[in-house]
């Protein structure tokens, strides 16, 4: 477990600032997750295959997907994974007073 101690001469004022900053970051990540999921959905509809099947089977075994589309699709999937991990870490943060 990691801990960070913040000190401010204003007392409780810093707590609301930190909570607000964390909430803003979470909201930004959620927006990015939605946009990334939309991009994945476009690929799924275009090639009529789910992202999970595409990742498991590889682009050469799924409907001969062009290499550039495959690279972009895999990149979006990786982006989604990283965003979800970051959101999860942020959601685990507890403000202790």
Q: Quick one: how many beta strands?
A: 0
**Number of domain modules:** 1
* Gross morphology: elongated
The span between the termini is 17 Å
Order of SSEs: HHH
The overall average pLDDT, rounded, is 90
Radius of gyration: 19 Å
Q: What fraction strand?
A: under 5%
Concise overview:
By secondary structure, the chain is mainly alpha-helical. It has three helices and no strands.
What do these coordinates show?
The protein is mostly helical and 97 residues long. The chain has one domain. The chain has helices at 13-47, 51-57, 67-91. The radius of gyration is 19 Å and the shape is elongated. The two termini are 17 Å apart.
Keywords:
mainly alpha
Q: Layout of SSEs?
A:
Layout: H1 13-47, H2 51-57, H3 67-91
């Amino acid at each position: 477990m990691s801990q960070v101690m913040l000190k401010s001469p204003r007392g409780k004022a810093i707590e609301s600032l930190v909570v607000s900053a964390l909430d803003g970051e979470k909201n930004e990540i959620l927006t990015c997750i939605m946009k990334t999921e939309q991009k994945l959905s476009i690929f799924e509809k275009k090639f009529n295959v789910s992202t999970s099947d595409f990742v498991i089977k590889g682009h050469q075994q799924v409907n001969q997907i062009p290499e550039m589309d495959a690279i972009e699709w895999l990149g979006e999937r990786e982006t989604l994974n990283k965003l979800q991990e970051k959101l999860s870490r942020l959601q685990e943060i507890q403000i202790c007073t």
